[in-house]
Write a structure and sequence with these properties.
The protein starts with a strand and ends with a helix. The protein is built from three helices and four strands; from the N terminus they run βαβαββα. By secondary structure, it is an alpha+beta fold. Helices cover 41% and strands 27% of the residues.
């Protein structure tokens, strides 16, 4: 099971990232757990200074933009 974490304050881009990542994971048939992290102090734990950000199994894969579903699939598989 993949652990997917979305770092963001709840803005429109953060919500769009969540939706895109969920769609990508579902299309790939992955089992996953998604966690939304909105505590700015926790962003620093990941070294993230710009949101939204995607963390997959503890590794930051993306920060500062919303990928397409195809880009998200590639990030989830890498």
């Amino acid at each position: 099971m993949k652990k997917l974490q979305i770092l963001g304050t709840g803005c429109a881009k953060c919500n769009a990232l969540t939706e895109t990542v969920e769609n990508a994971a579902n299309e790939l048939g992955f089992e996953y757990q998604i966690e939304k992290i909105s505590d700015v102090m926790r962003f620093a734990d990941f070294g993230v200074m710009i949101t939204p950000a995607l963390v997959v199994d503890g590794q930051v894969k993306l920060a500062g933009k919303v990928p397409t579903v195809e880009e998200a699939k590639a990030l989830l598989q890498s």
